[in-house]
């Protein structure tokens, strides 16, 4: 592993490269907060894929891409005379020190849960008007539900155990099945999803990771189905459901 001096040198070189690119590269010169935004989201999703696959080589690569974007935003901020990378890091340092009084102060905590509860209470002291004010509107729905539940848990709004949380799932499922109006049924289905996510979270399962693994598994099996069909000169779209089910079971064994 690199020494602290080597890490600082590498970061310093990155800042120099960013300065060069912003000054000399036609593409980099044209970028703004707005034009980079969707590219940043893409890079974060690519990092997410690498993390799920636990591919360390790809994780290192994608972390670099995300870091480049962070430095890029800071460079644009400095050009606007608003902030630079040092301001970004100093602000982060101050926040981390303030939110970890059990490390940098005299607060005592028993476990991880107390740390989380203190974290949410300290955020309110920083000026947040609501425990939920930090939940981004653009966050994907499953992740957003998980974060909402984590945040309200921080002030004690939580089921006592997973069994109680599952009772809520049963309750919401019953309401969903009983509803006949389509618009109201949609709302009830949302409640089912929210309660399932809550149950998963309390049970120690990340629902977004679980769903993404299922997505990947489905893609893999379906592509095996397509390959099997092609090897037999068959086309899935021309097969009936029973035939495709048989192929699906066969693909599961490969």
UniProtKB/TrEMBL annotation:
Residues 31-103, 171-222 form the NTP pyrophosphohydrolase MazG-like domain. It comes from the Bacteria. It holds the Pfam family MazG. Coiled coil: none annotated. InterPro entries: MazG-like_dom, NTP-PPase_MazG-like_C, NTP-PPase_MazG-like_N, NTP_PyrPHydrolase_MazG. One of its GO terms (biological process) is dATP catabolic process. SUPFAM superfamilies: all-alpha NTP pyrophosphatases (SSF101386). Transmembrane segments: none annotated. One of its GO terms (molecular function) is nucleoside triphosphate diphosphatase activity. PANTHER family: NUCLEOSIDE TRIPHOSPHATE PYROPHOSPHOHYDROLASE. This is Pyrophosphatase.
């Amino acid at each position: 592993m690199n020494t602290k001096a080597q890490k600082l040198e590498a970061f310093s070189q990155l800042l120099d490269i960013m300065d060069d690119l912003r000054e000399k590269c036609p593409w980099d010169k044209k970028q703004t907060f707005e034009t980079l935004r969707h590219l940043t989201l893409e890079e974060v999703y690519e990092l997410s894929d690498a993390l799920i696959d636990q591919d360390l080589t790809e994780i290192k690569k994608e972390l670099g891409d995300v870091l480049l974007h962070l430095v890029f935003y800071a460079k644009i901020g400095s050009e606007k005379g608003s902030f630079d990378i040092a301001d970004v890091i100093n602000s982060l340092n101050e926040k981390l020190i303030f939110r970890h009084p059990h490390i940098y102060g005299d607060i005592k905590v028993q476990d991880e849960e107390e740390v989380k509860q203190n974290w949410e209470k300290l955020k309110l002291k920083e000026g947040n008007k609501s425990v939920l004010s930090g939940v981004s509107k653009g966050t994907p729905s499953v992740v957003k539900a998980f974060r909402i539940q984590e945040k309200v848990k921080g002030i004690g709004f939580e089921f006592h155990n997973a069994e109680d949380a599952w009772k809520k799932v049963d309750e919401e499922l019953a309401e969903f099945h009983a509803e006949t109006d389509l618009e109201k049924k949609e709302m009830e289905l949302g409640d089912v999803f929210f309660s399932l996510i809550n149950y998963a979270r309390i049970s120690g399962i990340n629902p977004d990771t679980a769903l993404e693994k299922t997505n990947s598994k489905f893609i893999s099996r379906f592509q095996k189905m397509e390959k099997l069909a092609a090897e037999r000169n068959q086309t899935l779209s021309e097969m009936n459901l029973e035939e495709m089910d048989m192929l699906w079971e066969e693909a599961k064994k490969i």
